[in-house]
Amino acid sequence: MEQNKEMTAQESLKLISETLNNSRRDILSKSAKYYVLWGSLLTVFSLVIYLLWHSTGKASWNLLWFAMPAFGYLFAWMLGKNDKALPESFVGSLTGKVWGIFGLFSITLSAIAVFIVPMPITFTIIILLGIAESITGVILKNWPIIVGGFLLGVGGAVAAILLKSEAQLLLFTLGGVILAATGLVVKYQYK
Amino acid sequence: MFPKLDPILHSELRLAVMSLLAGVDSADFTYLKKQTGATSGNLSVQIDKLTTAGYISVEKGFKGKMPCTTCMITPAGLAAFNEYVEALKAYLK
Fold first, then answer.
1. Is B49 buried (19+), middle (13-18) or exposed (0-12) by CB count in 10 A?
2. What pLDDT digit, counting tens, does each position of A166-175 carry?
């Protein structure tokens, strides 16, 4: 790129447009791997806990959920080590905050449900998951993610009422798949 | 009559740097260099010019043990950039 090249108005606008698009693509493709990571973890944890609960009949296997954030943040830290050269963006930090708040609500409510006041935790968290997913779609201006989040939240809430005990965990498996699929959509949309 | 184009921004490399910074909170020197394909020396000179004009601010620090220069667009820079884009549109009407 040259410093003193004479540019026409068209060339200048084209340069601005291309630069902004490239930057946006870099930032969004950076966030994609975190959706795949958390979606995969959610799928694996829900399936493992479901199988353990189903085979032993003990609901106490749900305590394994508290290990998921530890694994997730460790893997996220490892993945983030290669992001040093990428810029910080409003979109990236906003989606990060949305999922951070989802995690905070989910962990706190789960702890309260397990140790203090019993509550329909699958029903609650699946709605929170759907809302976080849809808000992410709004931020990324991506209709499939908005609709996916809505269907997950509303459909998951209805299913959480209809399904019993360990079968409810399969809703989180579905949620994990949708979350990972969100990451893949973002990755290929902005490739 | 066409509006006058800001000479600070009407340069390919400086405009690319401003376009990159307009879309993000901050970006480091390595990223700007990679995106623009400019040499370190040339990019440094243009960043100094944009800083002197008050269009961007620069923070020098470290990431781990490596020195890191982080650039951010200023409110004045964003206003100048928007004005420049509007001026360009007038040329195309």
1. middle
2. 888 898 898 8
